Amino acid sequence: MLSLSRLSKNYRTTEVETCALNDVSLEVAGGEFVAVMGPSGCGKSTLLNILGLLDRPSGGSYRLLGEEITGSSEQQLTRLRRDHIGFVFQSFNLIDDLTVEENIEVSLLYRKDGGARRKRVAEALERVGVAHRARHKPQQLSGGQQQRVAIARALVSNPQLILADEPTGNLDTANGEVVMDLLRSVSAAGTTIIMVTHSPLHAAAAARTVKMLDGQIVSETQL
């Protein structure tokens, strides 16, 4: 699915240079569920942004689906994100003025098949168990329901890779388990998932845990 080789990311200002990622190498197979753990500031979110083509590395190689990414144009990166990657965020990132189904359809707006869009939205809502909330606005939902909508939005385009950044971070224990059950089922269906989490309990849902410290991968545990 993806391969990183000696990846680095540096941020520069006029006064200081910060190394966010240093010599990171990682292989993730198709259909694998990988949890990334580490203290705040260790580079987890930077890694996820690069994997999601939202940021570019300063050096090294990133291959996604057999394609070298580091020299790609913005148009190529946009196409890859649209066609192959789904995102789930800690803060849900739903649009308050849109209904649940409209929030999910946003992911498909650049596709021409309008009829198919509506069918796919309905299927995604059914899959995460919130079809009965399709016409509600996000503020009318619980936190757990909002995160399920966010997962439906990530799933609706049938991505090969889902990147989840602390998907249970704003949820209570019960709703966190509901979200983790959903991610397990998505993984079991063959979608690759890379999840950043601070929770050892939720990391245990993954097949492999990668631990980071000071911008480097310091250990990997196969479960």
What does this structure look like?
- There is one protein chain.
- Helices cover 33% and strands 29% of the residues.
- The chain has seven helices and ten strands.
- It has helices at residues 44-51, 74-84, 100-105, 114-128, 143-155, 173-188, 200-203, and strands at 2-12, 17-28, 33-37, 59-64, 67-68, 85-89, 161-165, 192-196, 208-213, 216-222.
- The strands form two sheets. It has a six-stranded mixed β-sheet with strand order 6-7-8-3-9-10, with helices on both faces.
- Helix 5 packs parallel to helix 6.
- It starts with a strand and ends with a strand.
In quaternary terms, these chains amount to: single chain
Q: Tell me the Rg in angstroms.
A: 17 Å
Number of strands: 10
Largest sheet: 6 strands, mixed
How would you write the strand order of the largest sheet? 6-7-8-3-9-10
Order of helices and strands: EEEHEEHEHHHEHEHEE
Silhouette: globular
Poorly predicted ranges: none
Beta-strand proportion:
25-35%
Q: How many angstroms separate the termini? A: 19 Å
Sheet/helix structural class:
alpha/beta
Would you tell me the overall average pLDDT? 92
